[in-house]
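Note to self: user wants both folds in one dump. Writing first protein now.
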Amino acid sequence: MLILIPPSEGKSSNNTTEKKFHETNFIFSEQVKEIIEILKTKNEEIEKIYGTSLEKSKDLHENNLNVFSNQCSKAIERYTGVVYNQLDLNSFSEESKLYFNSNIRIFSGLFGMVKPNTLIPDYKLKMNVLGLTKFWSPFLSNELSKEELIIDLLPEIHRKAYEHKNIKKVSFYTKKGDKLVSAGHNGKVVKGQFINFLAVNCINKIDDFEKFEYDNYSWDGENFIR
């Protein structure tokens, strides 16, 4: 069972190793090189690609173009968003640490898919630009085809970047009258708590999802609802 989780908008710019990305033998290195070549042709479109000011876009663009020369951190140290802030990694047992790196995969616009311990440089590139969902789909689908079951905790845009014969998509909702609405920002918090629960307890069966308790969310067999 693999659990797919999103990256975070927020990232640490600190590098915790001296190893440069070109020294890591990353499994999708050739694909990253292809994306960089595409980025090199988009100098006139960088504000649209990065969604920020021209000055900041130039800095982000230059950093992306130079990722192979840049130093790395583990992915779990690189990502700093709401989901990741809920993970109590220091409390993980050795068994939970092994489960976490073996069962969790993080999707990424630039790197495709990484393990928590994969070494990556600082970068910024969303999955919803440059047709990246279509670009990554054959590679990620092939990599994931080896797995019997996928637990998908991804946002919709990332879900378009792969296919698999056995996917359990899990979302977080709040009841509003007779309707279910996305839990929004709070959904990121509970998602992080759920990922933490999976790792701490080394969960390997969907039936055990009902044991998760946080902020009145409960498992209805398909999703978590409050």
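First done. Writing the second protein, which came from a different request thread.
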Amino acid sequence: MASNEHIRQIEIRVGAVVLVGIILLILGVTFGRGVSVSTNAPTLHIHFPGASGIESGAPVFVHGMKRGSVSAVKPDSNGVIIDAILDDASDLRSDVSARLTILELTGGKKIEINPGSAPSAWNGSIIQGSASPDFGDLMNFVGDVSGSARNVLQRLDTMSASLNKLV
């Protein structure tokens, strides 16, 4: 039979392996989701007229490359302020702009940053953003147009009947 000291050494080894496994799991999930643990990453504050369904953790792209993620969405008197953490903001210029778009057909949102082309660098000010129309906006537009289209078709019918009588 094994001595108590030998059993204790085995328990300590098992505990250490479990602890290392948990740390690796946490690190894997953190880096796998694109969450950064560095404290010197620049934070962008972007003003949008509406949130349009964006959530914390949504990706932020610069020229089509994922460079960060949304850290917070806060209401503002004129819309929302979205805080986004980028891995590097050295290429952003003073005329930087942002657009809120759909990530994929099945849902989700992303922020696309246009770094700008001005000679002066971005000074950390709030970036003005705009939202692209999504499928919900398209369906609202189709609903509005369908009512107008019905009226136009009725008028065309009346006009064609009048033209028939005239001819």
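Dump finished. Worth passing along: The first strand starts at residue 43 and ends at 48.
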